[in-house]
Amino acid sequence: MIYVWLFIGMFFAFLEMGSPGLLFFLSFSVASFLTALTAIVLSFCLINVNFFLLTTVVLPLIFVGYSIILLLVCKKMLQTKQLQAKGGHTNIFALNGAHAVVIKPVSRDKAGYVVINGEQWRAFTDADTVIEPGVQVVVVHVRGAHVVVRRIAQ
Question: Can you say how many angstroms the Cα of residue 8 is from the centroid of all Cα atoms in its chain?
Fold first, then answer.
């Protein structure tokens, strides 16, 4: 029975290699190896145990328990890592509040361009004035494929 759990663990490890970054199948792989280790320990500790009950009920329940625990741990680790890497926001939501520099004049009616983290973005302002190149601005929000900026108060 130990070899079955080792085979299942290898199977899930290969599935994880086919879907890198998710860590979904890794949880099942590690749970399978831990179940095999548990089977070894139980086989030495419990000599007079019903082998059928152990292999069909106890070890699968242990596998499910390990899997649930490891899935929750992996989920928490990935959420924490993503929040730390991006300051709490990802994609266009990370642009809200970002500082930028105007490179082409920006107004409410005519689009200009700003540089945010080394990338050029089409921009409008929410004020009635024109913001000239070289002025520091802050992104108020993202609207479609452009940003709405406001001059930083000095």
Answer: 26
